Amino acid sequence: MTGRRPIRWVFGVMVALIALIVLEIFASAPLRWSRLDLRMWGRRSNIPLARGNPVLGGQYPFGRVPITNLVPVYSSTNRPKNPSNLRILFIGNRLTGENNLADVLTKMAVSGKFKIEAEQVANDGYTLESHAADYRTYQKMTNVWTDRWNFTNARPWDAMILQEHTFYPVYNWIQMRTNIARLNTVITNQNSQGMLFMTWSRPDFIFGSDEFMDRTDGAYSLLGKTFGMPVVPVGRAWQLSEWRRPDIVLRQRDTYLPTIHGTYFNACLFYAYITWQSPVGLSKGELWAIRDDEALYLQNLAWEVFQWRKDGLKFW
User: In sequence order, what E strands does the chain have?
Assistant: First the structure.
């Protein structure tokens, strides 16, 4: 009998090792079955992905939950349905780049309910066609934060805001549609959302200011519906502000580029359309030359415009 004890001990160790191997295989099975499961159940994750497949609990056969889903939320880069911190990318030209709109928006949102981390690709004279052909813009659009706890998930931009050259919606909206379509392919592939930055009128030899604005508004509204993109009516808001308060100068002497008041007004508008919250009470984004009463007026007007055309960033 004593001679059989070593055999039983070895047999017990082998059984234990086999059990551990089987447990490991079943524990990691959801990671390997994710593609099969998505085909079987026809579901799509609401978490934007840069690469790989989503790893979500409750969407796998027999209810298996991936180990990576047990990681606390604070250490995960998965996009929540109602994020409190939004990553925004502006794609445009000097109308966006002047006074650094992205930086102003980021700084003024610090005191708001939603925090915004905005960046911009704004090259002087660029059209959306120029951006579509620029690999640097593509790299910026596909830049993500990788989740070190879950290699299958990454967090892209919550929204990418497209600003076309001012002449395109007036004289060549067909080309503008093609440009947006090319960039929208990248946006949708990143599972991000696109928004349109409606520009304001500018001096023109053929069309007056009002007709120039009407044509711009018509093109942006049509293309916004075509691609399912919210349109931020910055041009209409400028038109309204210049009629009510011409003393608050939004344009530089070239009547084209924004002053610090114009950039701050744009930031207030984008804060409202991105967060669905009023910008009233936010900071000046370190644009100290703007008086308090002017900042309050621009904040209130931005919220009024949002209430008029409530077509903001969609949360899902």
Answer: 85-92, 115-122, 145-146, 154-155, 159-162, 194-197, 231-232
Contact predicate 242/266, CB 8 Å? no
pTM of the entire structure?
Answer: 0.73
Give the distance from CA 289 to its chain's centroid. 29
Return the half-sphere exposure (C-beta side, CA atoms, 13 A cut-off) of residue 71: 17
Tokens of residue 58, six digits = 């409750």
The answer to which of 55-59, 67-71, 211-215 has the lowest mean pLDDT is 55-59
Residue 185 host element (H or E): helix 173-189
In angstroms, how far is CA 71 from the centroid of its own chain? 25
Compute CA 157 distance to the chain's CA centroid, rounded to the nearest angstrom: 4
Read off the pLDDT of residues 109-135 as tens digits, 9 standing for 90 and up. 998 888 999 999 999 999 999 999 999
**Cβ atoms of residues 116 and 274 within 8 Å:** yes
Cβ–Cβ < 8 Å for 279, 198: no
Q: How far is CA 279 from the centre of its chain?
A: 18
Report the C-alpha gap between 155 and 191 in whole angstroms.
10
DSSP secondary-structure letter at 171?
A: H
Say if residues 194 and 181 touch (Cβ distance below 8 Å).
no
